[in-house]
TrEMBL record:
InterPro entries: AA_transpt_TM
Identification of the protein by name: Amino acid transporter transmembrane domain-containing protein
Domain Amino acid transporter transmembrane: 4-171
Superkingdom in the source lineage: Eukaryota
Main location: membrane
Pfam families: Aa_trans
Amino acid sequence: MVPGKRFDRYHELGQHAFGEKLGLWIVVPQQLIVEVGVNIVYMVTGGKSLKKIHDLLCTDCKEIRTSFWIMIFASVHFVLSHLPNFNSISGVSLAAAVMSLSYSTIAWGASVKKGVQPDVDYTFRATTSSGKVFNFMNALGDVAFAYAGHNVVLEIQATIPSTPEKPSKIPMWKGV
C-alpha cells in the first residue's frame, strides 16, 4: 500500500494543497470551465459528424441545419446519461471500441497503401509572429482535446472501491 491519503475528487486534492476555502475557489471553476468547454466541443463535433454522414448517405434529401444535428446528438447523450450505470450501455461501449479500432485500421491501411508522397511540404506555413503564436495555441488546443478526460480521472477512480483487503490497484491495472 502507498502511504498517505487517497484523493477521490479534485476539490479534495485542491483543499489539501491550498486549504479548505482557497482549494475550492481554485479547483472548482477550472474544472467547470474544462467540463463545459469539452462538452460543447464534443456536441458540435458530434453534430457536424452526423450532418456529414447524412449528407453523404442521402444526397437527394432536404438540407438539415447543423444546429439541429447538434441538438440530436445532445439528445442522445442526454438519454444515455440517465442510464443507471455503465453496464447498461455495454453495447455502446463495444460499438465505440470496434469503431475506434476500425478508424485506426483504415487510417493505417490508407497510409500504407498511399505510401510516401513526393512533393509534400511539412514546413510551418505561418511566417508572421502572430501566425506562429496562433499555430502554437492551436497545437496546445489539440493536445488538450486529445486528453479531455483528465478532468474526471479522480472521479472515475472514486468509483472503484479500495480497502486494505482489496486494494483498488488490482482493478485499475486490469482497466489499463
